[in-house]
Amino acid sequence: MDFQPPDIPDVIRDHILHEVGLRTPELQAYGNVLRLYGENSITKNDFDYWYYRFLDDNDEMDVEVAPQAIEINQNYDLFIRMLSSYYQLRQLLPLRQICRRFRDVIDSNYTPFTDIHVAIGHDYVYVKFNDMRSLYSHKEVREYKYGHKYHDENKTFIEGEGYLTKAFDAVAVALRNQQNILRTFRLSWHPRAKQTNREQTAENVEFFYERVRLLLVNQPFQFAVRDFSIQDTNLPRVLAILQHLSPETIRKFEISDVNYGSWRLGVIGDAEQIMEQMVETPQWTSLSYIQIIHTPINIPLHNFVYCIEFEIAVESVTIEEIVRLKNTLLERPRFRRCKVMTRTEFNFDEIIPFRNMGALLNGYRHPADNCPYTYRCTIPYTIFQLAVTLRDVSFEINRVQQKLSNMTDNSVKSFSDMPTDVIEVIVEHSELKEQLILRKVSRSLRDLIDTQKLDYKQIIVDARPDHIFVQFNEHFVAYLDHQKLDIDISQMSSIYKYTTIIRMPPGGDWIQTAFADLELALKNPKNRFQMIRIHSFDDDAGKTVYKKLENILKPLGDRKIHVTRFCARVVEGPQLLSILPHLQPGILKSIEIEHNVDLAENIDFLIDSQQWKKAQDVEMYAIETPIPIECLVHLRRFDVWIESIEVQDLLKLRDNLIISPIFESCSIRSYSGSAFDIVEVQKILGLKQPSSEKPQSMLLYSIPNSDAILEIYVDNHYVYIEKA
């Protein structure tokens, strides 16, 4: 029988609303559902039913209908596993507030944190977890902006006198989990205009920062974060926090002081001594980007020369120090730019005559530079230069590319003239895409690059009607037509934040350029991919992608692509079969197929392929073609959507799975046909009814000559089987 959830009276609903204490409709709805079920289990369909019912404010509930006993259709552990796969961080955080059991399971098994931003005010704490914004305060703060529009649908008000502790406890969830690897972790102030408010903000910051420091110091592991930013004047505390961040992941470090007009907090601690200790830490030597916009301090510039970029403030600097820094940076191929601000103004006429500036810097004036004190120095054996710009209270050094066509300097060497050790350094510090291009220069260079281990792990192609995103590992490239307007990266997912935009000139082919870069990666036999994903929500763009990829892979002949996981969104069977045969059987462990694809004419070719037979995991969503049960039983895990499934198919599936040595779990959903009769399924499959504390729809089958059992859950058009 179909499950019929009972109505819930308004009085019960109001009681739940009061107990949960959440403020947005979405979070109230989640809290209500979980309060309703307590620590029992619930299917996703039932969860969605109650969630949207609570979310709909116009839904009138019958107050005269008494609460009825609810049939629980799922065991607790399975519910948690399904919940973590269906819902994201924004939905899981409220579940932690329901009970200790939920909190322990979510904290130990689910690690969705990638970005945490904290801004502390005089009577509130703003915390941003990924895309979820929470405002902790003893009263509701309605007018608040923090660098972007504060959308009502994404904010949560958590009121109470203990708002500081509640805010820290929420942040501590991420900091205590060793599995979390944050992209960004930012701690900052947000003081109001009044002097009294600023002093209260300082007290709140001191409380929060100290709790963070103590938590990190007392943990047995170093916390993993890529970009760390803190606004603080307590340098010993900053040093303590930095020392407990993982040097294997930290790449960007920003520290700034608290300065709002005439209101400034003084530095706590011996700044020079603290900085001397800081530069000796392994975290410092791992940094690629450093920004210290603080009260100017004396720190030698040579401590920053291994960074790609840095921006600092110092007490003073001399021309001789700038020259030494420039000479050192000439030998650093990874360097891009730096800016150094100082309290002391440069009086160029008194320090050194204007006519001798270029000679001292060993540079020359370029007509493209507007600043009269900008001098360019050529980096030997490259097409790059360092542009040194002196200003009144600062100087900058930028790495720029020179235009060879406008140069008369015949001393510039070609790439092939470089010594082998110089080429090795350049190759070592080149990005993956650049290494693949360098392989085309000469046979000797190709042999040199191929002796190194290329670090390609994944390629994701996301095709749109007027542009293509290609992800090489964590590096995103957008290929655009010259007529397309700029892509607003700020409105997209945070993973696209550092996307490189490649715009074609008039007459240029952006599609051809994108697939030329893909061809360099796919045709290199040294590459070992963890994942290749082809994705497009536009059918025409998707067809173009598969046609281009087929043209790239066909010339490979018998050589196969080494990839572990292949994900594809296709609309036609031939599209899938144009790519799959070119992937190495046995190496390919996981196949994922999305979209409403009709495989009627191609299903036999698919299940007879070596790639399918040697795969271990398969996911197929909304497939419109019947799939023989026999072709699934060799898999370790599979999750498929098929047209229909009968009880006899379940019997056949059971007989094969009990003898499979690798089977772990499977899910089968049908979108047509009759719903299962649990009594009939139990009778035909010879299943046992579990103990009373388990749901009635969970049936058990003891595997002969084994201690293992099959847990079979049946609900309408859905079947889940797990080997336990």
Taking the alpha carbons of the first and last residues, their distance comes to 27 Å
Which spans of ≥5 residues are poorly predicted at pLDDT below 50?
A: 1-13, 15-23, 57-76, 142-154, 351-355, 404-412, 490-498
CA-based gyration radius: 31 Å
Sheet of most strands: 13 strands, mixed
* Tally of distinct domains: 4
Tell how many strands the DSSP assignment holds: 28
Q: Which whole number gives the mean pLDDT?
A: 72
What class would the helix/strand composition place it in? alpha/beta
**What percent strand?**
15-25%
Share of helical residues? 25-40%
Summed up, the helix count is: 24
User: Strands of the biggest beta sheet: in what spatial order?
Assistant: 4-3-2-1-5-6-7-10-11-12-15-14-13
What coarse outline follows from CA principal-axis ratios? Answer: globular
Would you mind describing this structure in some detail?
It is a single chain. With 724 residues, this protein is of the alpha/beta class. The chain has 4 domains: 10-108, no CATH class; 111-299, no CATH class; 453-625, no CATH class; 643-724, no CATH class. It has 24 helices and 28 strands. Helix 23 (647-657) links the parallel strand 24 (637-642) and strand 25 (665-670). The model is unreliable at 1-13, 15-23, 57-76, 142-154, 351-355, 404-412 and 490-498 (pLDDT under 50). This is F-box domain-containing protein. One of its GO terms (biological process) is innate immune response.
